[in-house]
Design a protein that fits this description.
It is elongated, with a radius of gyration of 21 Å. The chain contains 15 helices and 13 strands. The protein folds into two domains: about 180 residues, Rossmann fold; about 160 residues, Glycogen Phosphorylase B (Rossmann fold). β6, α7 and β7 form a beta-alpha-beta unit. It is an alpha/beta fold and about 375 residues long.
Amino acid sequence: MLRVDFDGLKVCFIAGTLAKGGAERQLYYMLRALSQSGARPRVLCFKQGEYWETPIRELGVPVTCVERSRLGRVRQMIRELRQDPPDVLQSAHFYTNAYTQIAARVLGIQEIGAVRCDLVSEVSSNHPWLRRLSLATLRTVAANSRAAIRSAEQFGLAPASLRFLPNVVDTARFLPGPGRPSGEVRILGAGRLTAQKRFDRFLRVVARVKRTASRRITALIAGNGPLLTVLQRTAADLGFAAGEIQFAGAIEDMHSFYQAADIFLLTSAYEGTPNVVLEAMSCALPVVSSRVGDVPDIITHGLTGYLAEPDDEDLMAQAVERLVVVPELRTRIGLAAREFVASYHSVQNLPEYLHSLYSGVLQHESASVAHR
């Protein structure tokens, strides 16, 4: 890994939440990389006492909770930032872009907005005025998928303002397991139990494989969400018997779940760069995924995993069946996936990615000052 020295760079992140989620895990990775590289990061957060707050504080990174009301929140943010102005103000979530932009303009500092999914879904889920502030005049936007960058250009953002900041995974933590005995094959899905993740599709694919496979097939779903009861009924309707499916809820240590599985199946309707795919691949778990977001940039079909169009359940089932039948194929695909993630999406690479991002932002600021 290239050693990057940030030499006292002050970066303040504006976070809507520090709950247990993929965006928040990536924020933690960034804060750790910055702290270890000589920077002085801090966090202003809209909520208090959530999952990632304690690990962030344990890094020595200050976390300040700001008020809930929108106007009061902006005022408090500006007061806090004036006491120790950062070099860069960075949004951790799409819906905090507007607050980040307003505070940066008032204080005369550079801002970086965030796009954490495919952008289309984020735009559609926010109020029109917030959408305009969250995108229209941001000077720099960091997106975790190239699919989001393409969407941002279609929404009218200048290509020069868009930066690709890939998701990373802790490859020293998400390691291959010791191997599982032949016989039962476990198919794992992970994520919030929401319409986006299409776990109904996951259940149908696994049910089809279960009907035709010569081995015992079990399904494991890690995650909580509003569709739990609906999905439990769907599983019963599809003929899953007791012991053939487990709804495990939210899991504290997902690496052990990846290591206990044989195949990872992602059936989402849309994504950016899904952390669960990178984590599964880092654990040398072969992945079958819908062709969404940046997944085709992560998975090379037939080499590091298998891809299918989101509504092509037949092709997904065929790929899973192939992996079920040939254990050696699971091993080969999994090891190739692990090698790819270690090369391009490891936390080891993050300081260099962040250095490129901040260098571009601060060079832009210097050029603007010189021009004025």
